[in-house]
Amino acid sequence: MNPWKEAILETDPDLDVEIWPRVEKNERVTFAVVWNQPPNVLNSYPNLGVVSSLGAGVDHLISDKTLPEKVKVTRVVIPSLKEQISDYVLNAVMNYRFNTATYVDQKRIGQWNPIDPIQKADLTVGVMGLGEMGQSIIERLQLNGYKVFGWSRSGSQVGNTVCYGGDQFDDFLRRTNILVNALPLTSETNGILDLEVFKKLTSHSYLINVGRGAHLIEEDLIYALDTDALQGACLDVFEEEPLPTHHSFWNRPKIMVTPHVAAITDPKEAAKVIVENYKLSLSGMSLMYEVDRGKGY
Ligand code: NDP
Ligand code: OXD
Fold first, then answer.
1. 147-151/162-164 β-pairing
2. Residue 216 contacts residue 244 (beta carbons within 8 Å)
3. φ, ψ of residue 32 in degrees (nearest 5)
4. In what order do the strands lie in the sheet with 232-235?
5. Do 147 and 196 touch, CB atoms closer than 8 A?
6. What is the pLDDT of residues 194-234, one digit of tens each?
7. Which CATH number fits domain 3-78+265-283: 3.40.50.20, 3.30.559.10, 3.40.50.720, 3.40.640.10?
8. Which ligand is nearest to the CA of 155?
């Protein structure tokens, strides 16, 4: 059985679950669960009231111009997503500090060439986006003794962390060595990671992108690396996924590539949120993790 169907039925065996495209009667569908759906699918269910993303990101739904306006959008936020993404970022920070990628290359050619690690005290990590993921990343880094700042549209506080608001972006960047992007992709954040941003970072500058590929202007990253405006990057998300085989990122030693695995949704854990939202939608109550379609996140 499809793992999602299995997880949903395990949570509530009385539900009627069908897997697209084998849907018997379109008019019976009131709730859908999707990831990277093709256009012109969600508009074929006249009674669709709610569509849930399978993950935390909803850009695939917000950008679907064929999704009827009346349909509410929700997403899945579960502890394991936050746990994974914060572990991923901590690991990326440590790999950078301890030159892991260089030693992997050196081992291949049997070379013993120690490089001084970057001291923790010499680093400040700046996290863009202080939502469910960003907050978790900040907490994990702080627990491990890193100095961290945050930035978001509202600048809302995360514990005792110094957080900057939308119009204080430059101040935030100027205090940051390692820039972590955990923003949602919206019309405002598309292309936000550009050369101007990289140039404002302070020494030992490094980029970790776990948001979306379209946040990054790819040619600006290459230029920044070639001109030492940035020392390296760890990228989990890409404009085109899978990253095409001919893409220049593959051959760049300063770029670490992972195949969109920073946080993978566990169907069993996610099913609890999905089923709960389905039941809330039946009773007309407020939904969990409902997205503001106007804001795009
Ligand atoms: P949330 O909706 O909880 O938080 C979004 C944050 O971004 C908020 O702090 C918000 O600010 C801020 N923000 C939005 N627009 C802007 C803007 N224009 N300028 C500054 N700040 C802005 O999202 P999550 O934390 O749950 O998820 C963030 C993203 O992480 C997802 O959309 C997805 O793309 C990515 N992700 C990637 C995964 C992976 O495996 N690589 C896994 C999970 C998520 P404010 O608080 O002021 O509203
Ligand atoms: C998500 C993701 O948004 O995996 O959950 O990218």
1. parallel
2. no
3. -125, 150
4. 162-164, 147-151, 124-128, 178-181, 206-209, 232-235, 255-257
5. no
6. 999 999 999 999 999 999 999 999 999 999 999 999 999 99
7. 3.40.50.720
8. 1
Per CATH, the architecture of 79-257 is what?
A: 3-Layer(aba) Sandwich (3.40)
Dump pLDDT digits (tens) for 150-204: 999 999 999 999 999 999 999 999 999 999 999 999 999 999 999 999 999 999 9
Measure Cα distances from 229 to 2, 67, 188, 225, 233 in Å: 47, 41, 24, 6, 11
Q: Which of 152, 215, 241 for mutating ligand 1's site (highest number of atoms within 8 Å of CB)? A: 152
Ligand 2, pocket-test mutation among 36, 81, 88, most atoms within 8 A of CB: 81
Using a 6 Å cutoff on CB, does residue 232 contact ligand 1? no
Contact 166, 155 (CB under 8 A): yes
CATH 3.40.50.720 location in the chain = 3-78+265-283, 79-257
Q: How far is CA 177 from the centre of its chain?
A: 20
Question: Which pLDDT tens digit goes with each residue over 67-118?
Answer: 999 999 999 999 999 999 999 999 999 999 999 999 999 999 999 999 999 9
Helix, strand and coil in the chain, % to nearest 5: 35, 15, 50
| Helix extents (H) in the chain | 3-11, 59-62, 79-97, 100-108, 132-143, 169-174, 195-200, 218-226, 267-282
